[in-house]
Amino acid sequence: MSEQRQRVFSGIQPSGSTHLGNYLGALRNWERLQHNMDSVYCIVDLHALTLPKAPGEVVEGTMNMTRMLMAIGIDPALSILFTQSHVHQHAELGWLMQCVTGYGELRRMTQFKDKSDRLGGVSESDADEATSGNNASISAGLFTYPALQAADILLYDTDVVPVGDDQRQHIELTRDLANRMNSRYGEGTVVVPDHQIPAAGARVMNLQYPEQKMSKSVGSDAGTINVLDDPKAIEKKVRRAVTDNDGEVRFDVQEKPGVSNLLSILAACTGDDPEKLAEKYTQYGPLKADTAAAVIAELTPIQERYRAISDSDVAATLAVGAEKATAVAAPVMQRIRTAIGLVSPTP
Ligand code: TYM
């Protein structure tokens, strides 16, 4: 009898350009894991709607993100690759998870605090703010987002969730919610997942503001390396990366965030240790040149594959993915409905 393979699930939003942080923190590991784990990867279009989107934007983002994941090497023959809104059980379990998630738990989420601050911040006191001002533009969905994320994960009986460091808190909440479901509705109602965060590349920082993480939505374009940036653009961005004035190459995230970010990126690309790498350099120039070259070597093959994937390949991949994902999610959803005690639709 062969041992049952572990199940991997992860997701990415189809908004903005895919950047080096997404790639080193998460997507590269998705590709690796698919070879010996049962892998399910999701483009989370419903999550993208928590911030306002024009009609058409999500379609384009989803198509481009699918193409990107295929170019990175997510193979539809090895993994289930699909978009969230094609499997309606995400929305269904999302609601049920909202009903076991505490208001206080959601209020503690740093991603909600960061994103709502960017929209002007939440006001608790002023009643007028409810229909105008900042509170009106911060959607309820942005607040309950982590409950939908928990649903995504639990719907596939997931053992392992490969993510970057910024998702740690969401996965820890998912674990708490999974344990709560099991103690409320019986052991085995859901599988309790674990996160997997890489040793190198878990938190790639903005090259211009190295105390902020590289992000699709915040920070300058000059500080963000996009996976589709051409080699000249990458060289320029790395050459202009903010460092410091003491001239010493040392891995020290607190004191030297810019230099440490470059060392981390280089280490993630080459598989070396950032502290050991630092010993090889006495000046910032050569460190920057090697970092740019390593990033270009990593991204060029992806860019070539990206250009070769047709729209019809993308559409066909999503259609097959939706069918395979539903085949896994539907029975899990049924099991959870029964455990919770909802009336069955069939007599
Ligand atoms: P998203 O779309 O913001 O990011 C996708 C993945 O990229 C990682 N990441 C980074 N890693 C290192 N350095 C960075 N600067 C950096 N920026 C982003 C993220 O950690 C993530 O792994 N809420 C999720 C999407 C989601 C999800 C899920 C993830 C929805 N449901 C279920 C896992 C499981 C998000 O917004 O990721």
Describe this structure in words.
There is one protein chain. The chain is mainly alpha-helical. It has two domains: 7-201 and 311-340, HUPs (Rossmann fold, 3-Layer(aba) Sandwich); 221-306, Tyrosyl-Transfer RNA Synthetase (Orthogonal Bundle). The chain has helices spanning 20-33, 45-48, 57-72, 89-98, 103-107, 110-118, 133-137, 140-154, 168-185, 231-239, 257-270, 274-278, 284-308, 311-340, and strands spanning 7-12, 38-43, 79-83, 160-162, 194-196. A three-stranded parallel β-sheet has the order 1-2-3. Strand 4 (160-162), helix 9 and strand 5 (194-196) form a beta-alpha-beta unit. The structure holds tryptophanyl-5'AMP (TYM). Residues 10-13, 21-22, 25-26, 44, 47, 149, 152-153, 161, 163-164, 166-167, 170, 202-204, 213-214 line the site of tryptophanyl-5'AMP.
Q: Which short descriptors sum up this protein?
A:
Tyrosyl-Transfer RNA Synthetase; mainly alpha; 2 domains; Rossmann fold; binds tryptophanyl-5'AMP
Give start-end ranges of low-pLDDT stretches.
Answer: none
Q: Can you identify the CATH superfamily of the largest domain? A: HUPs
Shape: globular
Number of DSSP E strands: 5
Helical content stands at: 40-55%
Helical run tally: 14
Q: What average pLDDT do the residues reach?
A: 94
